[in-house]
Amino acid sequence: MKTLFDKLSKWSLRQKVLLSIIICLIAPPTIAIQVSNYFTRDVLREQAVINAQESLDVANLYVTERMNSMIYMTNNIQFDNEMATVMKKLGQQPLDPALLVLEGKYITNKLETLVFSKDHMYISVLLPNGAYFTNYSGSEFNPQQFAEESWYSKLDQMTEYDIEWVGAHPNYIQSRSKTSPYLITMARALKSGDAKPYAYVILSAEEKTISDFFYKYAPTQKMILTDAAGTVFASADNQQIGAATAFPDYGPSEQQGSKIFTIHDQEYILLNKKLPFAGWHLISLVSYQNAIEKIQTIRTNDYLVQVLFLLVFIAILYWIISRIMNPLVILARVASQVRLGTLHVRADIRGTDEVGRLGQVFNQMLDHIESMIEQITEEQTRKRKLELELLQAQINPHFLFNLLNSIRMKIRMKGDRESADIISSLSKLLRMSINRNNECLPVHVEVEIVQHYVKLMNVRHNQKIQYEESVASNVLLEEIPRFTIQPFIENAFIHGLNQKYGHITLTIWKEDAFMYISVKDDGVGMGEETKHELNQALHREEHESKSRVNGIGLKNVYDRLQMTYGTSFRMDIHSDLHRGTEIVVKLPLSAKGEA
Hints:
With 595 residues, the chain is of the alpha+beta class.
């Protein structure tokens, strides 16, 4: 609950007002609907059972009529005296083919008269001597194969009034097996008293006629026909035929009646009706929701109308509140953008009321802040340039450069070429320091400055350093700020090598839209703590601490590059104690000055 209130506290005023009004609109009808559902639940259940029972009763009438029709056909054959006389005559041994042809026409005509082709029923009359008569073609099925069935031997022990209900089995009429895969069959033995049967009557009806009726009459109701043991004889799902009943809480001993149970959070109505044929049952399973579908449709339409009007009212309400709250929303959005650093946005709020005047004052405040920031930025830029000029001015002035050139010429004229070259390097280094015309120089000029500087440092100290450089040809003409590389070489010599013998390697290359400068030494290196302090010193503001390197040190270079390239510039320091230090600088090749 506390978490919910915390989330609601972060909502805007408009959202809170809308939520409160919507709750007040939705709560009363919702409560009324729930109360109505509670009091009408039992009535709907009763009506649903009655509707399902009515459908089951109609299906019962159809199945009973179908079975009675089959019984009537066999009775018609059994109690036809003339037909009985013919069957007894034809069933004698030995079989007389000529008599079978002459007398058998009566039986064949009788069978065709009893069953119409549209009924999809198949009658077989078998005589004890192997003769048989059917209303279907013998090429479709040989009825003598019935003698191989387990139920066929039971017929001899039955009375003339008994019926053997075989149940469902695969269709033996090949031309109809795909359309109607199963048949429901009954069999009777025709006899007089206790005498042996003089004929056997086997009548089969297509199961599809029953399952089609189940589906067409009550498509939302699942009906099946089972025997007393619960084996399915007829169902709209052919895969269930011959299998045990899959309905929950149902067994062969289940009594007639109805029950309501739940499967996967859905309520179902189960109806069970016993048929007057060999203990067969007609079972129906219907979803409670489907049973009350018509009533639910009316109630649903009523709910939809209420919801529609509710949405219309909410839309109108939202429009009214938006008109009132929009100026505050705009002002809050602009304030959020200003908080992120976007100062050029303005609140377009018009009007003479309190909110309109607040928007005008807010815009004026932004104008004033933006003007102050521009002024401060300009002052800081000028300050940086003055500092750079001051740093550059610390190197000896022009007259030193001219004097050194004169000394170099005199020494060279006396034949001391080595000393003249050293003075030449110093002169060129001074020239670069004094010349302030160009803020940026090509890479090859910066590399040349480094070469002169290394030469002078080796003259100054007894132990010379080994300097190596690897500069890609595609970066030689790229421009970088003056004195970008030299401070890193100076730092490597003074702090990395401790002004002693060692190696310094300069590598410059280009990848994608960036140029990389690497200065690496094999000196004393730094531990993690020292490296961490150095990184903190580079990121401190000037008023917090001073760079520990005199002249154009690391701090000065870092600040100048950051001011020139903004966030696109990066400096990484990699160092291991007693193994050396490497400084890698990443510079963009375009868009200087982006912050």
